[in-house]
Amino acid sequence: MFNNQYTISNEVSFSGIGLHSGKLVKIRLMPAKENNGINFIFKKKKIKASWSNSEISQLCTKIKFNEIYLSTIEHLMSALSGLNITNLKIETSSNEIPILDGSAKEFIDMILKTGIQKQNAYKKILKIKRKVKFKTNDKFIEIEPTLKKKLIIDYTIDYQDEFIKKQRLVYEHTFENFKKIYKARTFCLHKDLEKIFSMGLAKGGSLENAIVVSGNKILNQGGLRYKDEFVKHKILDCVGDLYLAENQIWGKVTTYGGGHELNLMILKKIFKDKKNYELIDCSFKEPNNAQIFKKVSL
After folding, report:
1. Per-residue DSSP letters for 192-244?
2. Collapsed DSSP state (helix, strand, coil) of residue 292
3. CA 186 to chain centroid
């Protein structure tokens, strides 16, 4: 449990291909002052990483400010949530965050290498007080109160195919547990690629940054990183999307067939009624764990 706010110790840079745009992207992560939150900067415009700036999308997570939008922020946001980064400036050269290897691994590795700085201000927690649900066709997501002081995600996917099939995982969001999912890569079915390409998407997609499932096998050399990599990646995405609450969440999420659209819809429903949640100020003594990120090995 981390009660204080955190930023990174030093600036760190990344470059890579945008999954959907196919463009080369350069981004800089820079330390930010207390209570600033996480903010993206594109074309000298600041876009706060917030549910209120989100735009519903099926194949990635987007945020926007007026005519400016940024997409595919979910893996970076998941890494920041997993590392408890609460304040950060992210400057990008393009309107899409690089996909890198399709997981949160490179973001995690580089941030840990540059270091994490504990700040004097306390963070806030979004505590769920009432059950909230969103359903569309046969897919649903719900969030409800929990006695555990953490985010719990009960995630089920059911592709009804030859390889992925049905997978379920119950995940409790702690740094130790995040280490068990952060390398899970994005994926798609080979039969869906034609449709995705026709939408003008996945121009930067390759076997270097996505798992492609064809029939009863995957096309990637080296196989899977986890036997349940597919559901773990969905949880990775969910963690990143829910961090658009601008705070860590205490609540239990249950979802079947979920995705970016459902993740953002549940946030919008939560904030639609103030009776659904309360913000808790973590102004109580924190355990002596300021160096925990330097001690762990990924």
Report:
1. GHHHHHHTT--TT--TTT-EEEETTEE-STT--SSTTHHHHHHHHHHHHHHGG
2. helix
3. 12
Q: What are residue 162's phi and psi, to 5 degrees?
A: -85, -20
Tokens of 52: 């209120």
Taking only the tens place, the pLDDT of each residue in 172-200 is 999 999 999 999 999 999 998 888 888 88
- Tracing tokens 């953490």 back to the chain, one arrives at 150
Dist CA 107 CA 115 (whole Å): 12
| 20 phi/psi in degrees, rounded to 5 | -95, -35
**pLDDT of 119 above 50:** yes
Reading the block at residue 16, the tokens are 């890579």
Q: Is the pLDDT of residue 285 over 70?
A: no
Q: How confident is the model at residue 283 (pLDDT cuts 50, 70, 90)?
A: confident
Instruction: Give the span between the Cα atoms of 96 and 73, in whole angstroms.
Output: 7
Q: Give residue-wise pLDDT tens across range 120-140.
A: 999 999 999 999 999 999 999
- 200-210 pLDDT, tens digit per residue, is 888 899 999 99
Task: List CB contacts of 232: < 8 A, sequence separation 6 or more.
Answer: 169, 180, 181, 184, 226
Which domains does the chain show, CATH number per domain?
Answer: 4-122 (3.30.230.20), 126-281 (3.30.1700.10)
Residues designated as active site? 260
- Pairwise CA distance, residues 154 & 169, whole Å: 6
- 3-state class (DSSP) for residue 108: helix
> What six digits make up the tokens of 211?
């798992």
Report pLDDT for 199.
84
